[in-house]
Amino acid sequence: MTDADIVARALKGEEDAWAELVAEHQQAMFRLAYLKLGDADEAEDATQDALIRAHRYLRRYDPSRPLRPWLLAIVSRVAANHRRSAGRYWAAMQRWLAEREVLGPPTPARKAPASIDEGLWRAVQQLAEVDQDVLYLRYYLDLSVADCAQALEVAEGTIKSRTSRALERLLALLESDYPEWIEG
Amino acid sequence: MSEQDKRDRLEQRLRQDAAGLRYPPTPNFAGQVEQGAKTAWPLRWAVGVALILIASLAVQPVRAALFDFLQVGGVAIEVPEEDTSTSLVSQLTVYALKDLTNPTSLMAVRTEANFPIRLPAWPLDAGVPDAVYLQTVTGENQFAILVWLDSPQGEIDFALYILGPGVAITKGAPLTLEELQVNGHQAAYVQGGHLLVVQGFHESGVLVAGPALIWEGGDGLTYRLESNRPLAELVRIAESIEFSE
């Protein structure tokens, strides 16, 4: 049975169907939220919020397209909103005022999760959110270009160019700030 | 090592590290559903909502955003869910004219920008802007800010943002959000301090005091007009731009 079939059952009121969809996709949603927020509790809150919204707007899902990118688009947006919480606003604004640039600072670095290349992870965290998003989806969640495009609600060509740009910037960061990573 | 070799190696390392990343355990959201935390709507309610949705789409500009955000051209505005009048806004410093960078002239920006710079034809005595700024986000993505003061040393009367192709702005939830039209095109009017983020190489965050009128021009560009003037005057200023040279 396809996701579209299960969604159709859920829209008819079958509670088991919705639980089935959640079970299938919750891990991917939670992991994307965790990558974006860097905290398990915040990621849980964001995922729960996203699932509530997905259920509420399930009728807007296009059954001719894969479901997972649609759900990832929701959790990505919710996590970004959570990221812009009052505390983060304050910290970001303080940094911006200190630097006094219209184009402000990159997203704040977070503690490296276990068993990851710390230099690479730190460099990824120094990228802007738009670059991180495409790297998370393409490499960390291993989505295809087409699914990435749906999740980020842009054209496939845009995904390719964003990926290329993100890799260029990541490489530049590694070369300037983590030369040992390049040499290693 | 060639640049391509470096990129190939980087992609390989990203995939390796992604495979080795130890995520925290995924909470059992599905189990919460089975315990009754969420129930599907009965069919009659679903039909009712569908009819309401269809009716609303017929009379209002279509929302391109999935939900939570109203998309007007290149600007995504977070829809406020509650009164934010007591929010963090009071703690933060408002983005000021003196903080803008790259001042230029009207003549120069018309040469340097890769999109047309049209001025409002109203108010009749507005004239040319008192200050002009051209911001480059990435590559060819630019936006211009034109500022009119109420006197040579006075406060800002209105500031007009013209977003070039490819520039995207996200606005955090303002105090109020009203949908309307400018020359038949989708528009939104926001009030209350909120965070404005220009999507680009760096994710910028500036706090703007609002209010602002945002609309999609007939030329395909997105405009943002920030001013304390009444909405009716902002719409008049906005509508005068489309037909000016």
Describe this structure in words.
By secondary structure, chain A is mostly helical. Helices cover 73% and strands 0% of the residues of chain A. Chain A is built from 10 helices and no strands. In chain A, helix 7 packs across helix 9. Chain B has 245 residues and is α+β, with helices and mostly antiparallel strands. Chain B is globular. In chain B, strand 10 and strand 11 form a beta hairpin. About 18% of the residues of chain B have low confidence. An 8-stranded antiparallel β-sheet of chain B has the order 3-4-5-6-13-12-9-8. In chain B, strands 1-2-7-10-11 form a 5-stranded mixed β-sheet, with no helix packed on it. Chain B is built from 5 helices and 13 strands. The chains are: A mainly alpha (184), B alpha+beta (245). The interface between A and B is large, with 75 and 61 residues.
- Which strand order do you get reading across the main beta sheet of chain B? 3-4-5-6-13-12-9-8
- The share of residues in extended strands of chain A comes to under 5%
What would you call the shape of chain A? elongated
Oligomerization status of the protein chains: heterodimer
